[in-house]
Amino acid sequence: MARIERFEDLEVWKNARVICKFVEDLFQTTGIGKNYRLRNQMEGSSGSVMDNIAEGFDRDGNREFVNFLSYSKGSVSELKSQTYRAFDKKLITEEQFNELTKMCELEKNKIGAFMYYLKNSDIKGQKFKKD
Length: 131
What we know:
Elements: E1 3-4, H1 11-29, H2 36-57, H3 62-88, H4 94-120, E2 128-129
Antiparallel strand pairs: 1-2
């Protein structure tokens, strides 16, 4: 099995980056860009997903990494809730709403599956093997 040496190689981090880019595109093209409070909250929660995955990866082992993945999972749910607010305020279209909530749900599930894997893995060190 190949070893994951960098957080940039983790699928959950790559997905989180895609979500951040999608959210930024919404800021540039929709009414969210002018709703500064909601924009700042969405910027924070989407960035937190990526950042906590990265930070947890470089901690001492699975237990701490799982904690940071849990924070990331919570941030995904926070972003999903904020997406509802943006839609309810008519700042985004139904298509944009559906796309972002689908992305959030998929990321939440992938992070959860990764947490389950790490909790049940014999690998307890700082770097992780890839399936």
